[in-house]
Automatic annotation (TrEMBL):
InterPro entries with a match to the protein in the record: MetI-like, MetI-like_sf
GO biological process: transmembrane transport
Similarity remark: Belongs to the binding-protein-dependent transport system permease family.
Pfam families in UniProt: BPD_transp_1
Topological type in the membrane: Multi-pass membrane protein
Locations listed in the record: Cell membrane
Source domain of life: Bacteria
Originating species: Arcanobacterium bovis
Protein name: Carbohydrate ABC transporter permease
Predominant place of localization: membrane
The entry's keywords: Cell membrane, Membrane, Transmembrane, Transmembrane helix, Transport
Spans through the membrane: 20-46, 81-110, 122-141, 153-171, 208-226, 254-275
Sequence ranges assigned to domain ABC transmembrane type-1 in this UniProt record: 85-275
Length: 288
């Protein structure tokens, strides 16, 4: 018995030792990836609290000494950054309300209603995901210009305020997972289309709805290409375009640029912290 136990202990010790080094290598790799991801944010935040002279003399990653808020003050006094901030918030609100409402209704129709050509229409719409967004910029610009929507708020939001194919596809698959027996029971109790959607389907899909909300906010908050094309007038600049405008061909105050960048990122970090639990739950449910 002793001779048989020794090999078992030996192999168990070797396995535990190998597992330890495997875990160590995995965590070191993850820590390295996290550092590579965080360094640009640290660079942005540290630089935003320095003067341009400090940045040149001390370097980007040196601690600001002393800490100054002049860059943030300059954004709102000298560069009127309050206007791009207000426009961006309005754009995000309109986009979120429009895209979430239309995506939910379209996804529920594709998931639960029966009508001729339902699946064909759905897959044709989803196939538009394979079309690069940049391909549609010129036709959209021509259409908006013909409609007289250049340099207007409507020109920024109208082309993209309805449901996205990705959101409709994801919601449809989740709505189909709601048990049909539950909906049939609600129908017997007198619940109609809207009551079933509002009281049963949406509450059971809160994690994925929170994730889609965050994705929509982030994508529209960071949108640069279309607002830069359709609204060249500074009075309609969103935050991303206004931040890019702080840099010129021949000069750029990188301390002010990094302050604007930090200002753009901060609301998204707060939003992620607020919806952190829902996002993690959605990953566990949908694997996305």
């Amino acid at each position: 018995m002793k001779e048989t136990r020794k090999p078992q202990r030996f192999w168990h010790a070797r396995f535990s030792h190998a597992r330890f080094w495997s875990y160590l290598a995995t965590y070191l790799l993850l820590i390295g990836g996290a550092l590579l991801t965080l360094i640009p944010f640290v660079f942005s935040i540290l630089t935003s609290f320095k003067t341009e002279k400090q940045l040149v003399q001390d370097g980007a990653l040196a601690l600001p000494a002393p800490v100054t808020f002049d860059n943030y003050t300059s954004l709102f006094t000298d560069h009127a950054f309050i206007v791009p901030l207000a426009i961006t918030i309005q754009v995000v609100l309109v986009m979120v309300i429009g895209q979430m409402t239309s995506s939910i209704l379209a996804a529920y129709a594709f998931a639960r209603l029966r009508f001729p050509g339902r699946d064909a229409i759905f897959w044709a719409y989803v196939c538009t995901l394979m079309i690069p967004a940049v391909v549609t910029m010129i036709p959209l610009f021509g259409a908006m210009s013909t409609a007289g929507l250049r340099n207007t708020f409507a020109g920024i939001v109208v082309p993209f305020m309805l449901g996205s194919p990705y959101a409709i596809f994801l919601l449809r698959e989740n709505f189909r997972s709601v048990p049909q027996e539950l909906l049939d029971a609600a129908t017997l109790d007198g619940a109609g289309f809207w009551r079933q959607l509002w009281s049963i389907v949406l509450p059971t899909n809160k994690p994925i709805l929170a994730t889609l909300l965050l994705i929509t906010v982030v994508s529209q908050w960071n949108n640069f290409m279309w607002p830069n094309i359709i609204a060249r007038d500074p009075q309609w600049h969103v935050l991303t375009v206004a931040t890019a405008a702080l840099q010129t061909q021949y000069s750029a105050n990188w301390a002010i640029v990094m302050a604007a960048t930090t200002l753009c990122v901060l609301p998204l970090l707060v939003l992620f912290l607020l919806f952190n639990k829902q996002i993690i739950r959605s990953i566990g449910i949908t694997r996305v």
